[in-house]
Every structure is written in structure tokens, then in C-alpha cells.
Amino acid sequence: MTNCVHRFELEGTDGLRDKPGRGRRPSLSPEQMGALSDLLLGESPVGHGYNTETWTGPVLIDWVDKNFGVRFKKAQIYNIIKKLGFSYQKAKGFYPEADQEAQEDFKDSLKKTPGKPG
Asked: In terms of Cα–Cα distance, which of 102, 89, 76 is closest to 40?
């Protein structure tokens, strides 16, 4: 509180305005943010050695760490995605990397399981 009073006494109402350059510096440069945006728009995780067709928070965390040497938590990577103008999309139950044959075998094995003795 006293800081506000001192600034007001020294500079008037202009002393109460926020000063530029305050706050924490971004972890990624504008060039790195642009590269991340280009990555999300035009490339598949498979092309970067991941076993998925969709960019997820954990996959992006790993990619950013490997390429830029910056480690983010999951909540922060989603904030970065939003800042880039992208939105989080929920999965619709279809996973391109899933083994369809193994899924069918599993479903068949469930049908053959005997019920409770009566």
C-alpha cells in the first residue's frame, strides 16, 4: 500500500499506472511460438517419432522439451495452445493408432466369459 502512495506523491496519477516490462518473461521466443504453431497446423506427431496421430498435451510437452529445451507442465502447455489460437478438442472414441484386430479379439474373449454360477 505504501508503494502506491509514494508513487502517487512522486508522479501523480501516472505513477499508479502499470509500467511496461513488468512480469515474468515468456519461456518461448516469438520464433519458437511460430514454429510450434506451424507444427500444430502442418505436421503429424508420427513424423517426429511419436506413436499417435494427434498432438496431445503430453506429446507437445515432450516435443517442446526436446526441441527447445523448455519443460512445461500440462496446464501451461494448454495455455500456450490457447494463446496460439488453437482449442483443445476432446477425443471422439476413435484412435487411428489402435490395433483394430486386437480390439475385436478382446471383445470376442469377453463374450466367451462364463457368467456367475447360479
From this structure: 89
Amino acid identity for residue 24 in this structure: R
DSSP conformational letter for 93: S
Query: Which amino acid is located at 105 in the chain?
Result: D
Taking the C-alpha atoms of residue 93 and residue 96, their distance in angstroms, rounded to an integer, is 10
pLDDT > 90: percent of the chain? 48
What tens digit of pLDDT does each residue of 77-91 get?
999 999 999 987 766
One-letter-per-residue 3-state SS of 48-79: HCCCCCCCCHHHHHHHHHHHHCCCCCHHHHHH
pTM of the predicted model, to two decimals? 0.60
Residue 3: φ, ψ to 5°: -60, -40
Query: Which long-range CB contacts under 8 A does 63-66 form with residues at least 24 apart?
Result: 63/39, 64/28, 64/36
For residues 49, 46, 44 and 30, what is the CA-based torsion angle, rounded to 10 degrees? -10
Distance from C-alpha of 29 to C-alpha of 89, rounded to nearest angstrom: 25
